[in-house]
Amino acid sequence: MAQTTLISKSQIEQRVAEMGRQITADFNGSELIACCVLKGAMFFCGDLMRAIGFDVALDFIQVSSYGNEKYSSGVVTILKEPQLDMHGKAVLIVEDIIDSGLSMREVFRYMESRGPSVVKTATFLDKPKARKVPFEADYVGFSIEPQFVIGYGLDYAEKYRNVPEIQVLSD
């Protein structure tokens, strides 16, 4: 499969630093939990947490809606639940990509049910033209067209996560 670069490593580094500064300004003084959506968001979450200028707790949630396909099945399953007590705390859901909006809508609802003071969302990539349900992230790294991308944590059948840039996967 041939790939073409969509977003370079340096563009990623610059944008994540900008997002970290904005989140620092918005949440300073809060007890913040970053909840990383596994597996795809782990690179973005690690870099974003280092760009936030105060201590942030870290937890994880894992959901599935893709399997080994290029398109979401539409059925969202929680595979791993967060472990930290979120009651009364600020929660930042850190996601790799929002596509149909179905997974993020379900993760958001789940987080709200755990009693945080506020739930916000940060996504590295956003595909607004691919939405099946309305959802807008609070912090967006890059908006892209509906195409299948890999790299910086995003995979196809568990491959390509370690590519340091975002590439369009072609057949």
List the helices and strands and how they pair.
Blueprint lengths: L2 E5 L1 H19 L4 E7 L3 H10 L5 E8 L12 E4 L9 E9 L3 H11 L5 E9 L12 E5 L5 E2 L15 E4 L2
Parallel strand pairs: 2-3, 2-5, 5-6, 6-7
Antiparallel strand pairs: 1-9, 3-4, 8-9
Helix pairs in contact: 1-2
Can you describe what's shown?
Helix content is 23%, strand content 31%. Strand 2, helix 2 and strand 3 (57-64) form a beta-alpha-beta unit. It contains three helices and nine strands, in the order E-H-E-H-E-E-E-H-E-E-E-E. The strands form two sheets. A six-stranded mixed beta sheet has the order 4-3-2-5-6-7, sandwiched between helices. A three-stranded antiparallel beta sheet has the order 1-9-8, with helices on one face. It is α/β, with parallel strands linked by helices. The chain starts with a strand and ends with a strand.
